[in-house]
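Below is a filled-in request sheet from our internal design queue. Each sheet records the structural input a requester submitted and the sequence that came back. We keep these sheets so that new team members can see what a complete request looks like end to end.

REQUESTER: design group, bay 2
PRIORITY: normal
MODE: inverse folding
CHAIN LENGTH: 64
BACKBONE (tokenized):
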């Protein structure tokens, strides 16, 4: 899960809108398959980005 979360973090922060879109779709499908208990690290990461005042608009867009 660590490798996947790290890769998804990078993809969700990419400058290209299409990369972020496909990363978000892939993340949704992955979390759906793994279940909420196994996806908590990822959800914590997303929450941290959305609540951070230092996150860029690109990072927030990808996390959303």
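RETURNED SEQUENCE:
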């Amino acid at each position: 899960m660590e490798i996947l979360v790290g890769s998804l973090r990078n993809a969700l922060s990419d400058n290209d809108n299409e990369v972020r879109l496909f990363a978000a779709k892939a993340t949704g499908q992955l979390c759906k398959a793994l279940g909420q208990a196994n996806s908590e690290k990822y959800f914590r990461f997303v929450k941290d980005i959305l609540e951070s005042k230092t996150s860029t608009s690109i990072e927030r867009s990808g996390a959303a």
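SHEET NOTES:
- The CA atoms of residues 12 and 20 lie 5 Å apart.
- The chain has one domain: 2-63.
FILED BY: M.R.
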